[in-house]
Amino acid sequence: MHEGLPVPVVPGPSAQSRPRARRGLAVVCGVVAVLCAVGVWLLWRVFVDTWAGQRVEDTALDGAAIGQGRLWRVADPVLDVVSVGFVAGGILGAAAVAVVRRRWSLAVQVAVLVGGANLTTRLVKQDLLDRPVLGVGADYGNTLPSGHTTAAGSVAAALLLVVPPRARPLVAVLGVAYTALTGVSTLVGQWHRPSDVVAATLVVLGWTAIVCGAMAARPGPAGTATAMLRRVDAPDPWWASTRRTALALATLGVVTGGVAVLLLTRTWAGRADLAGRGAELLAYGGGVAGVVAACCLAFAVMLLLRHAAGSRDETASTPV
């Protein structure tokens, strides 16, 4: 009898719990960022600030000379790409994708992510941490974190930030490949030690978490109750592929991380006498495995955080 009157829509539990879930995600992102900062400090404390850690990584550095001639043909072009121009181009390219998608805030977040990560690496390496002279190897000063790895990883993370949901799993996989290749290339060239590269990966993950946390914490989109309910209740068509990719990367990261722990534990146990090709290969192999593990796990976490932070307005019922 009142057919002309609109039927009021009362938000259900899913809509009511949405702000709480967003706040929870922001807290999770904050925890990830803090853990990354702690991780960087622990890497420095164990592998840079102690004689045993320096001894193990110096052996890995010596091991990089094995087969270096052939490997450098691949590593050299990879490292030549990374420069100030590369970082600037990465920022502009990612910002352009954000503008094309009409996601204006993402253009700013890209600059925050890439700029924050690279400035943090520079500050930590040159001002906050040092490398004590403990009689191990040559004294080149502190090299943790790796600037090349930070640059490569931050540009890959920026692209992960701005591409549409359907493209993120592929970008995450490519990001792992490129960041790991850059990190391993710095090992091949004896530019960096394994802890430098892993620390750089943590810096990138930390800044990605900060940006995703800010994205989750900002107010939700305006709209009617009906529109909000439609967004909240719509199925997420991208979650399945995102979850599978993150799980695959995490699995690979755990496996390679286990290999790294096994090899480096054996190297650490024999740190008093690490002379010889076998010890060098053991330390070098453990370092390479550690770099691959760090990249896989970092991008798995970044993929999940980015998906969760953007799921509010990137459902099937809204343009992506």
UniProtKB/TrEMBL annotation:
Domain Phosphatidic acid phosphatase type 2/haloperoxidase: start-end pairs: 106-212
Organism: Cellulomonas wangsupingiae
Regions that span the bilayer: 24-44, 81-99, 106-124, 144-163, 170-191, 197-217, 246-269, 281-305
Alphabetized Pfam families for the sequence: PAP2
Top-level division of the source organism's lineage: Bacteria
Protein name: Phosphatase PAP2 family protein
Entry-linked Gene3D superfamilies: Phosphatidic acid phosphatase type 2/haloperoxidase (1.20.144.10)
Keywords: Membrane, Transmembrane, Transmembrane helix
